[in-house]
Amino acid sequence: MVQVVPPERIHLVVNVGDDLEMWGLHISPDIDSILYALSDRLDWVRGWGVRGETFRCLAAMEALGQPAWFQLGDSDLATHLYRTELLRSGLTLSATIERLASSMGVRSRVMPATDDRVRTRIETVNGMLDFQEFFVRERWRPEVRSVVFAGAAEARVPEPVLHSIREARAVIVAPSNPITSIGPILAIPGIRDALRCTRAEVVAVSPIIGNAAVSGPAGKLMDACGHEVSPIGVARCYHDFLDLMVIDTSDKELASSIRYDTIGVEVTDILVHNAEDAAQLARFVVSKADENSFVAS
Amino acid sequence: MVQVVPPERIHLVVNVGDDLEMWGLHISPDIDSILYALSDRLDWVRGWGVRGETFRCLAAMEALGQPAWFQLGDSDLATHLYRTELLRSGLTLSATIERLASSMGVRSRVMPATDDRVRTRIETVNGMLDFQEFFVRERWRPEVRSVVFAGAAEARVPEPVLHSIREARAVIVAPSNPITSIGPILAIPGIRDALRCTRAEVVAVSPIIGNAAVSGPAGKLMDACGHEVSPIGVARCYHDFLDLMVIDTSDKELASSIRYDTIGVEVTDILVHNAEDAAQLARFVVSKADENSFVAS
Q1: What is the mean pLDDT of residues B131-148?
Q2: Is any Cβ of chain B less than 8 angstroms from the Cβ of A79?
Q3: Distance from CA of A46 to the nearest CA of B (A)
Q4: Looking at the predicted complex, does its ipTM rise above 0.90?
Q5: Structural domain includes residue A237
Q6: Less crowded by CB within 10 Å, the N or C end of chain A?
Q7: Is residue A6 part of a domain?
Q8: What is the CA radius of gyration of chain B?
């Protein structure tokens, strides 16, 4: 997206349900991946962390008998140390992320969906797990019964997040896991209302092609939560605020089943292999949002 | 010393006046050097930290605009993270060091001189500096006016420290800086009393040969505190509890000036170049302590 829109015009509302405390540090995996991507440090091969990372501290922690299943890299640790120190000094998560982003030269606005504590917990046949325990430690293998967003009902949306949604030229729901990446954001009171009320076109790109997630446990979790694992299922997750759904060319015959009331559908190649593919998809999404928008830009 | 005495019989009472907080972590440089030495990980060339250390997190912290003058290595960080987490959970410093030592396979007993906050502060012509600011950041260059041990007067000695001093077969005052390494220990009420009252022989090895410290700012700081920079000056720092002073062969003509009342002097080669020299000096010190001791062992 930053290849086709001036970065400073992009506001990102990011999931904090995956956050965890490890070694006394506050870790925000989703936010960090975005900060690293936007500062051109993300390890795209691994999909997380910093390129060329080392894991010396992790090895030393393991030698001390401390938990080492969550792979904290040596460079990455600086992000967690700095954030944790700022949080302990009394800053909100939003303010700490603003400082981190600025220190990393990120020009887009990266906003946690809430400053309050929201934790995605996965009820499995073996008991309740924190999201990262399920996703990383157990490699999303246990059978899932349900997903809860602990703290979401009591969490507050920061005013700048609401403002960004209300005043946006377009709202793009990223092709992320609808249950555990987008879900914890939507579970915070006020977010769905803002999405329903914004004058901007709300466009979602499907994270599902055919009957499988492009990556990760989205399919497994959608299924566990009673949603059809298909672009149709994704559209239903967003039924109350979605204006436009972008699905893959290979799913074009689903368009008529998704189109409903005010929900439109656009078809293109959504499987992204490289930066060029990503730019092309971003350009497509932005142009379709503009075409359909009633907002004077 | 661990080469000549069973490690589990060695109790170390260690300075915490050099401790500092950095990046939200509690760092105990003196204790850590001892833990690394006793677990055979100390970088003897540098004199601190872990052998083969890397500094990736430090570089990332510097890139974030955070203080980077105190060289925290990636492996070393694990020690600080673990200690800080244990302290935050409510454990005393003594208890956290006990856990760290045990995790590292250290069989000797490593004890902070106090669980309370004592901070060595150096009054320089440019103002007050914390010890590490003076020692590391300013490379002990500023002219020194005085040294204070903030918090020492209010600090309490843990009972096991007093017990170790009282029940020891010998007490060895290491050839450390008398002002900023031994001084902050002696400044804690109860320690000098215990040293005066113990039945064990109290032996000090001089950190000064001739008129200069073997390493570091001991000479500069002794001078600033009004002490003669010589083995005689060192003996005077310990005058009220010292039984035996070990000085270098090259200083043997000072022996008669140091001998006083109950203070004896032994002469040997105290400049240590390698593990073999160290073992020889340790054997000498232990044998002299035994010879002079009235304690049945």
Answers
A1: 94
A2: yes
A3: 19
A4: no
A5: yes
A6: C
A7: no
A8: 19
Q: Using the beta-carbon criterion (under 8 Å), do A78 and B61 form an inter-chain contact? A: yes
Q: Is B82 on the interface with A (CB under 8 A)?
A: yes
Looking at the fold, whether A259 and A191 belong to one and the same domain comes out as yes
User: What span, in angstroms and rounded, lies between the C-alpha atoms of B165 and B202?
Assistant: 9
Q: Phi, psi (5° rounding) for residue B274?
A: -160, 180
Residue A264 and residue B259: Cα distance in Å, rounded?
98
Q: Are residues A45 and A170 in the same domain?
A: no
Chain B touched by A74 (CB under 8 Å): yes
Q: Report yes or no: B78 at the A interface, CB cutoff 8 Å.
A: yes
B74 touches chain A (CB under 8 A): yes
Tell me which of A103, A138, A153 is where a domain ends.
A153
B103 and A65 within 8 Å at the Cβ level: the answer is yes
CATH of residue A82's domain is 1.10.8.240
Same domain, A149 and A161: no
Which of A57, A70, A87, A106 has the highest number of chain B CBs within 10 A, making it the mutation to test binding with B?
Answer: A57
Asked whether residue B5 is domain-assigned, the answer is no
Asked if A148 and A240 sit in the same domain, the reply is no
Question: What is this structure's pTM?
Answer: 0.91
Q: Check whether residue A59 and residue A72 sit in a common domain.
A: yes
Looking at the complex, does the CB of residue A25 fall below 8 Å from at least one CB of chain B? yes
Cβ neighbours of B64 in A, within 8 Å: 78-79, 82, 100, 103-104
Which region, left, alpha or beta, applies to residue B261 given φ > 0 means left and ψ of -120 to 50 means alpha? left
Q: A57-107, pLDDT tens digit by residue?
A: 999 999 999 999 999 999 999 999 999 999 999 999 999 999 999 999 999
> Quick one: A218 and A175 in the same domain?
yes
Query: For B134, what's the count of Cα atoms within 13 Å in the CB-facing half-sphere?
Result: 30
- Residue B228 phi, psi dihedral angles, 5° rounding: -60, 135
Out of B53, B60, B85, whose CB is closest to A75?
A: B60
Which strands make up the sheet holding A244-248, listed edge to edge? A170-173, A201-205, A244-248, A264-268
Check if the beta carbon of residue A218 is closer than 8 Å to that of residue A241.
no
- Do residues A124 and A220 both lie within one domain? no
Half-sphere exposure (Cβ direction) of B131: Cα atoms closer than 13 Å: 28
Candidate from A60, A84, A104 with C-beta closest to B24: A84
pLDDT digits (tens, 9 = 90+) for B90-138: 999 999 999 999 999 999 999 999 999 999 999 999 999 999 999 999 9
| B56, B60, B85: residue with CB nearest A23 | B85
Question: Nearest Cβ partner of B60 from A64, A78, A84?
Answer: A78
Chain-centroid distance of CA B165 in Å reads 15
* Domain containing residue A185: CATH number: 3.40.50.10680
Asked if B242 and B260 count as a contact pair (C-beta separation under 8 A), the reply is no
Model confidence at A295, pLDDT cuts 50, 70, 90, reads very low
User: Which B residues, 37 through 66, put their C-beta within 8 Å of a C-beta on chain A?
Assistant: 50, 53-54, 56-57, 59-61, 63-66
CB contact under 8 A, B64 and A84: no
- A221 and A104 in a single domain? The answer is no
* Structural domain that includes position A28: 17-112
- Total domains in chain B come to 2
Determine whether the interchain pair A85/B23 forms a contact, defined as Cβ–Cβ distance below 8 Å.
Answer: yes
